Amino acid sequence: MLWQHKGCGVKRLDEQELVVKDYLLQGIAAGIFLHDGKMPSEYTLVEMFGVPRIKVRNVYTLLEKMGFIYSKKGIGRFLRHQQKPLEVVMSGDISFSEKMLNHTTNYKSIVTKIEQVSKDHAIFSKPYVTGGTLYLIERLRFIDGEQAAIHRSYVVAENMPEVKQVNNRLTSMYQFYKQHGVNQFRSSFSQLSVTFPNELDRTLLDCEILVPLVKVESDNWDEERNVLLEYTEILYRTDRFYFQI
C-alpha cells in the first residue's frame, strides 16, 4: 500500500520503506514497543534492514502524521498511549452523553459553534434535509481530558424554533428536546464512513493530518409529530480510541 497525501509533507513510500513501515506497525499492534517507550533508533533500523537513513526518516514522518508516535528533539521517537474503547452511537434514541458516561465519569462537552447554516452548505444535499432554516450546534467531546469527538447537530428551526435561543451552556441536545416537549425519538438510518481531518477538525481534535476519523451520520426525528429534528454528524478520533459498534 502506498501512502500519499497532498500538502502533508509525506512522500509516497517505496518498497524498502514499506518493509520498515510494516515492521514498525506490526510491532506496535503486537505490543512489542512499550507504552510511551522509545521506538528503535534510525541507526538500528538502517542496520536491521540495510536501507538509507533518509528512508527510515520518511517512515517515521509518516507514522507521526498518522498519530502513532511523537518526537522529542535530540532524544528520539516514542509510542503514543494505548487506544481506549469508545462506543459508536448508531441509534437516534439514546443520548451521546449517556453512551460516553458508560465509559468514564470524566466526560465533558463544550459548545464550539452556534450559527445559522448558509443555504449553499453541503448539508442541504443530505437525505431528508429538503430546505428550510438549519442551525448548527457544534460540540467538542472530551474523555479523560482528551479530545474524542466532534458532534455537529443541524437542527431544523421550523420543527424546533427554540433552537434560536440555544446558548453555549447547552450540555445535551436530548435534554434540550425533552425540555421542549419531545418525548419519543427515532432514527431512520445511520451511515458510517472513514475520512481525514481538515484544518478545522485538526485544530479541534488536536490530531495529525493523516489520523483517520470515523464519521457517523444519522437523522433524529420526533416520533409523535413525525418531523425531522436534526441531521447529525459525529467525527471520532481513531488514534486514541477504538470502537465498539
Explain this structure.
This protein is of the alpha+beta class and 245 residues long. The chain folds into two domains: 65 residues, Winged helix-like DNA-binding domain superfamily/Winged helix DNA-binding domain (Arc Repressor Mutant, subunit A); 161 residues, Chorismate lyase (3-Layer(aba) Sandwich), CATH 3.40.1410. The protein is built from six helices and eleven strands. The strands form three sheets. Strands 4, 5, 6, 7, 8, 9 and 10 form a seven-stranded antiparallel beta sheet that branches. Helix 1 crosses helix 3. The protein is elongated. The two termini are 27 Å apart. The N terminus is likely disordered.
Could you tell me the CATH topology label of the largest domain: Chorismate lyase
Q: Can you name the CATH architecture of the largest domain? A: 3-Layer(aba) Sandwich
Our count of helices gives 6
> β content, as a range?
25-35%
Global structural class = alpha+beta
Q: Which CATH class of the largest domain?
A: Alpha Beta
Which superfamily, in CATH terms, is the homologous superfamily of the largest domain?
A: Chorismate lyase-like
Q: What would the principal axes of the Cα set say about the shape?
A: elongated
Binned, the helix content reads: 10-25%
| Rg measurement, Å | 21 Å
N-to-C series of helices and strands:
HHHEEEHEEEHEEHEEE
Strand segment count: 11
* Major pleated sheet: 7 strands, antiparallel
Distance between the termini: 27 Å
